[in-house]
Specification:
Blueprint (H helix, E strand, L loop, with lengths): L1 E8 L4 E8 L1 H4 L2 H15 L9 E7 L2 E7 L3 E3 H6 L5 H20 L2 E2 L8 E4 L4 E3 L6 E2 L31 H4 L6 H17 L9 H10 L14 H10 L11 H8 L16 H28 L6 E4 L5 E8 L6 E7 L5 E5 L6 E7 L1 E6 L4 E6 L2 E2 L5 E2 L2 E6 L6 E5 L3 E4 L5 E7 L2 E5 L5 E4 L3 E7 L5 E7 L7 E7 L8 E8 L1 E7 L5 E7 L6 E6 L4 E5 L4 E7 L5 E16 L6 E2 L6 E6 L5 E6 L9 E6 L6 E5 L1 E5 L5 E5 L7 E5 L6 E3 L6 E2 L5 E2 L5 E7 L6 E6 L6 E2 L6 E5 L5 E5 L5 E5 L6 E2 L7 E6 L5 E6 L5 E7 L5 E7 L7 E9 L5 E17 L3
Helix pairs in contact: 4-6, 4-9, 6-8, 9-10
């Protein structure tokens, strides 16, 4: 009924699309009504996946619409050029669902979704076109309207839409709602994946019959290219009964969001099982998230349903997010598509975002006076904390940051604008309020510091061990007789990340898991009573709670992957077992990699495992946290994670485990035990009762452990000649301690963030890497001169979502490398209605 021209907006100097009604339609009242309907419907929507309307009007009796000019092609033309890869199809589907979500939120149903009305721009953006047959959904206030005003028939009685994509209720002329659009989207997705329409017939009547009575045939192309979760989503959209489909575009988008993972995590090629292992965690995550949609829908039948608004749409990691003081805008820090961390802000109530002029900065807090606190130039770790960062404050509206204090991973403001910080004071994590005044010192590390909105209390998570995120929910008083006294509200959480106060300040909300890493949302009152707020499969991280009760939360799919490569190699061998594999050692011949599995699959005691770089199945040697391999390759060290702690030598091959007696140590740090070159002694990091951690020498035949470093200095590997051990000081500086006693030896010019990974075979150099570098670069550093030579760059094939590459293990000849990398794929949601 219309014609579209390319036109020039002379006033704003831009090209636009100009849609005019055809002369033959200008006298048709129904066509005129639909033309005006399109203008009103589209103009009411402001979303990146819906074509933008700039102007509407009438010129000499000819109605017109001015819209954005799109460069690209319709989905129909794209389909005529061949099959669309499944990963790209999932991306298109998610964008369409997000556009429909915006329309449905305005009670607008499209009613004619088909490939001709979906436009793919040259930069991969999908736009929904042609709201000419759109209709307003009845709101609760419209419940008394007659059925005739709610159907999809025109005044002349003809059915509007394209029959192959119309829902059964639409074809029958019944009342339609937003679920009819979801059926149409299912039909479109089926065609994109299968290369043919879901419902076909020789005549239009035959096609209508197929829609009403038949199920589409199974999608038959190479099944390995289409994840089962995706196929299930399409089938769920095409249910005949609207009540059996997804009940909202928001639920559909939530499910589709689990499918937009990097390409290498999608395919299951027949070349070998290793790719299956690599993709399995993501596939399982997709299925679990789809299940969570059903669980959430079931909950809505019996309780007030929470409303979910997705806020981020890129691939990567959301590090932190906060509500702005106005309660409308949202500020968050994210690293998208393998690019560095950047701070963004939404614009008003829209989903549009704008980057702030702050790079290499992690968002910590937003004050009531519109200032933001950030950690600059830090090292981003697997649990989203920032090490070695410089606390700085800057206006939210823009401006240069003012540096305040070094080594601050967490901070928040009180109601008067005074900062409370977590300060890493040379290995001691302490809470300072005000800055410089120590209120509390942890034996481990502190995270997610938040000031109460109504009282003089600080809530935080206290983690007893430096190597994982087990923790307790605690509060501190800042006034009165109990100033600085830690009160533990809830303890024993195996994973605890994310915390905020309730609006009334009577509860602390937090995300945690009592086993594994599937964190749910919980609330604990000031008396220590815990209740569940929200629990769905997957890892939730609470970011913020607004005064009106809205919640910012990230849904994270996280893993710690394991890979290996050779000197000069551009390809890596994926050695991941489950979803949390930590590289610990590599054999002298470079064929075997010792690693620790800390995934939920192996239980809370962890597992010590060995894997050949040829990709053969891993061998589980025993429980515990992995240390190092013996020089002869016959033993691996395990440190128990349970009390009372003990050290065990696990045989590689035939033999029985050997438990070592380590008298006098109250605690032994996991994963840091190493053999000496003679194979008769090991080093462990731990502490005696009442003392701080240090490195000890333990004889395998027994005896009292001998301290070889001062307190607060932990050791690494001993040199092949047995003379030195490299150690890490509280200031994160690598120094060399003589094994027979004496002052430490520094390496000239070595930067503080350098992490040693191995000695050279002749003991003259160290191999290591700089913490936080992406990609990780392995250097050889000469001990005598400090000369640094780049040896190898280590970078995952898919950089999106990679937070850190660590630990890195190097063979003594510098030709083999094993490394772990943390990969977190995040989606930020705003949730309303949680209680």
């Amino acid at each position: 009924m219309g014609e579209v021209y390319r036109a020039r907006d002379q006033r704003l100097q831009r090209d636009v699309a100009l849609k005019l009604i055809k002369p033959a339609s200008s006298s048709n009242p129904d066509h005129l009504r639909r033309f005006e309907q399109e203008a009103r419907a589209a103009a009411a929507l402001n979303h990146p996946n819906i074509v933008a309307i700039y102007d509407v009007g009438t010129d000499n009796g000819v109605p017109y619409i001015v819209s954005e000019l799109l460069e690209g092609q319709t989905l129909r033309r794209l389909l005529s050029q061949g099959a669309v890869p499944a990963r790209r199809a999932a991306d298109y589907a998610l964008q369409i669902a997000q556009g429909l979500m915006a329309a449905h939120d305005r009670h607008i149903v499209h009613r004619d979704l088909k490939p001709e009305n979906l436009f793919v721009t040259n930069d991969g953006r999908v736009k929904i076109l042609d709201f000419g047959v759109a209709k307003l959904q009845p709101t609760p206030q419209d419940a008394e309207r007659s059925l005739a005003t709610m159907t999809t028939v025109t005044k002349s009685g003809s059915v509007i839409g394209t029959v192959a994509y119309m829902s059964p209720e639409q074809l029958r002329g019944k009342a339609v709602d937003h679920r009819s659009d979801l059926f149409a989207l299912g039909a479109v997705l089926y065609e994109v994946l299968a290369g043919r329409r879901a419902f076909r017939g020789e005549t239009e009547v035959d096609t209508m019959t197929a829609v009403l009575r038949e199920d589409p045939p199974p999608i038959q192309p190479d099944q390995s290219s289409i994840p089962p979760a995706f196929q299930q989503i399409v089938r769920h959209c095409l249910e005949k009964n609207p009540d059996d489909r997804f009940q909202s575009a928001r639920d559909l988008a939530f499910a589709l969001g689990t499918l937009t993972q990097p390409a290498s995590e999608w395919t299951f090629p027949a070349r070998g099982w290793r790719s299956v292992v690599r993709a399995l965690p993501w596939a399982i995550a997709g299925l679990l998230l789809l299940t969570s949609v059903y669980l959430l829908r079931s909950a809505r039948a019996t309780a007030t349903s929470p409303l979910y608004q997705r806020l981020t749409f890129e691939q990567g990691t959301v590090h932190s997010a906060r509500f702005a003081p106005d309660g409308r805008a949202i500020v968050y820090g994210a690293a998208w598509n393998g690019k560095p961390l950047q701070i963004y802000s939404t614009v008003g109530d829209s989903l549009q975002v704008q980057p702030l002029a702050l790079t290499d900065a992690n968002l910590l807090a937003v004050s009531a006076s519109n200032e933001i606190a950030v950690a600059l130039h830090g090292v981003h770790m697997a649990h989203m904390e920032t090490e070695n960062g410089v606390l700085a404050v800057a206006p939210l509206a823009g401006g240069s940051p003012r540096e305040v204090l070094e080594d601050v991973p967490w901070a928040d403001w009180d109601s008067t604008g005074q900062l409370v910080v977590v300060h890493d004071a040379k290995g001691h994590y302490q809470i300072e309020y005000p800055v410089g005044h120590v209120l509390f010192e942890s034996k481990g590390w502190i995270s997610h510091l938040r000031f109460s909105p109504v009282a003089h209390s600080i809530a935080f998570i206290d983690h007893p061990a430096l190597w994982d995120d087990r923790g307790s929910i605690c509060i501190l008083d800042t006034q009165g007789k109990d100033v600085g006294q830690e009160k533990e509200l809830s303890s024993g959480w195996e994973s605890a990340e994310g915390l905020a106060w309730s609006p009334r300040g009577d509860e602390v909300w937090f995300t945690a898991a009592d086993r594994g890493s599937d964190r749910g949302l919980f609330a604990v009152n000031l008396s220590g009573k815990v209740r569940t707020v929200l629990h769905v499969p997957g890892g939730l991280t609470l970011q913020d709670v607004a005064p009106d009760g809205r919640v910012l939360i990230t849904f994270n799919t996280a893993r710690l992957a394991l890979a290996a490569t050779a000197l000069g190699g551009r390809n890596f061998v994926d050695l991941s077992w489950h979803d949390w594999s930590i590289a610990k050692d590599i054999s002298r011949d470079g064929r075997l990699v010792l690693f620790e599995d800390a995934s939920e699959a192996v239980g809370p005691s962890y597992a010590v495992a060995l894997r050949n770089i040829d990709g053969s199945l891993p061998v589980r040697l025993g429980d515990g946290s992995a240390g190092g391999l013996s020089p002869d390759g016959r033993w691996a060290i395990s440190v128990s994670t349970d009390a009372p702690q003990h050290v065990t030598l696990l045989p590689i091959g035939p033999g029985q485990p050997r438990t070592l007696t380590v008298p006098g140590l109250e605690h032994i740090q996991n994963g840091a035990a190493r053999f000496l070159p003679d194979g008769k002694r090991i080093t462990v990091n731990g502490n005696e009762p009442g003392h701080l951690p240090r490195c000890y020498l333990v004889d395998l035949d027994g005896g009292t452990p001998k301290a070889i470093t001062p307190e607060r200095v932990v050791g690494g590997r001993v040199s092949p000649d047995g003379r030195y051990i490299y150690a890490l000081t509280p200031g994160t500086e690598v120094v060399l301690y003589p094994m027979d006693g004496g002052p430490p030896k520094s390496i000239p010019g070595l930067q503080a963030t350098f992490l040693a990974a191995q000695w050279s075979a002749d003991s003259s150099a160290l191999y290591g890497y700089v913490a936080g570098e992406l990609p990780a670069r392995v250097y050889r550093v000469e001990i005598a001169t400090g000369k640094k030579t780049l040896v190898q760059a280590l970078s995952p094939v898919v950089p999106a979502g990679v937070v850190s590459v660590a630990p890195v293990i190097v063979s003594q000849d510098g030709t083999r490398f094993a490394y772990s990398y943390s990969q977190v794929m995040s989606v930020l949601y705003e949730i309303k209605g949680l209680r």
